[in-house]
Amino acid sequence: MPNSTSDLHTISRTFRAAIRLGEDFITLEETITLPIDASDEIVQQAVDLGWRIYTAQREAVAQQVATIREAQGHPSAISVRDPDAPASEKQRNYIAALQEDLSWNNEQLSSYASEQQVDLVTMTKGQASSFIDSLKKVSEERQRYSVEQNRARGDQPASDKQLSALARLAQIRAADLDAETTQRFGVLSSALTDEQARILLAEWQTKRK
């Protein structure tokens, strides 16, 4: 968003993680803000950095979680005081935080709770604790799948179709494709990955328009 005191623009990414420690719940948050110019090239560079920023944020939060849990100890089992008592406000807030992380609406959350045989209105502390664990598992599995998919896609070599499109655009721009890819990514065009090719195609196609 624009800075009120200058023409500088910024772009921010926030990674939020909610964790349970016994019956306590805390939220860790990492935010990275990058200055960008108004040009398409700089905007595309920011998009290119997005995945690396996301990965770095995940690693930073994971380290914080590990440090906190190590300080708290590693009990073999977490006991819930008064498991038959109504779910606490902290538990309900934590469920809401996990719902937000999953991007679920209330209907989706209620449907999942029904599958887990949990009544969100009358659930006990014990039921809420188990429900939180199941939501965390869903969230972790989704994040792991997303990371693996993006990592796999980024490691795949660029397709012949992508390389042909880049060659045509380079000819239109009177640019040396190998020189461009070497400067941007440190490799010749023939060694581009799928992700690198997509980045350069998006940038050149945008500029062409």
Globular, elongated, flat, extended or rod-shaped: what is the shape? elongated
Taken together, the total number of domains comes to 3
* Separation of the first and last Cα atoms: 24 Å
Poorly predicted regions are 1-7
The radius of gyration computed from the alpha-carbon positions, rounded to a whole number of angstroms, is 23 Å
Structural class: alpha+beta
Reported for the largest beta sheet, the result is: 2 strands, antiparallel
The chain-level mean pLDDT equals 75
What is the strand content? 5-15%
In what order do the strands lie side by side in the largest sheet? 1-2
The succession of helices and strands, N to C, reads: EEHHHHHHH
* Tally of DSSP β-strands: 2
State the helix count: 7
User: How is the quaternary structure best described?
Assistant: single chain
Provide the helix percentage.
Answer: 55-70%
Task: Looking at this protein, list some descriptive labels.
3 domains; alpha+beta; two-stranded antiparallel sheet; elongated; 209 residues
What's this, in brief?
With about 210 residues, this protein is an alpha+beta fold. The protein has seven helices and two strands; from the N terminus they run ββααααααα.
Q: Can you walk through the features of this model?
A:
The chain folds into 3 domains: 1-79; 80-155, no CATH class; 160-208, no CATH class. The protein is α+β, with helices and mostly antiparallel strands and 209 residues long. The chain is 60% helix and 12% strand. The protein has 7 helices and 2 strands. It has helices spanning 40-72, 89-102, 106-115, 125-155, 160-172, 177-185, 194-208, and strands at residues 9-21, 24-36. The two termini are 24 Å apart.
